[in-house]
Amino acid sequence: MLKSSRFDFLKVKETSIHKFNEIRFTYNVMKYITGHALTTEEAIQRYLRYTDDPIFGNYFVIDNTNQKIIGLIKFVEEPKGVIEIGYSVFEEHWGKGYASEMAETMVDYALANLNPDKIIGYVDARNPASMRVLEKMGLIREGHDIERNGNKVYFFSRTIKQ
Asked: Which of 1, 89, 124, 160 is most buried when burial is the number of CB atoms within 10 A of its CB?
């Protein structure tokens, strides 16, 4: 299991889906990701991807002092050598530096163990806090923007190998 100073990272898989009953995917948490709140069933369908891979996938981020889930992080490789990170922190935990610690843990793990060519992330243009998280990890906003759920999304990347 991956760990940081404050968190344990538990991979989302069939055996851990009961954890979704402990959390709520409110509009405020999901507006920059899906554009709407998610039911528990929708969250399970969304986050129960990549379960066959031993490393890549979605992870519950658990506060190691009280065992409460504070968010989720996406850590996938598509295509080979390109690692995407994405994260969501539940509203009651905003402003505590959790997203930065979550992202830093995954980037550090990738650099130490996976030898990636590039690390990427996507951020809704209305979410400057998330942009700062990626910038702290050394990712730079590239010139091309995309649209998701009717909103402008910025693409960030950090090239490791030239």
From this structure: 89
Cα–Cα distance for residue pair 18/131, rounded to 1 Å: 31
The tokens for 110 are 């990738």
The DSSP 8-state label assigned to residue 12 in this structure reads -
Residue 131 in any domain: the answer is no
| Residue 30 to residues 45, 78, 89, 90, 107, Cα–Cα distance (Å) | 15, 23, 10, 9, 23
CB 85 within 8 A of CB 101: no
Tens digit of pLDDT for each residue in 88-142?
Answer: 999 899 999 999 999 999 999 999 999 999 999 999 898 999 999 999 999 999 9
CA distance 145 to 127: 14
CA–CA separation, 85 and 131 (whole Å): 12
In which domain, by residue range, is 71 found? 2-120
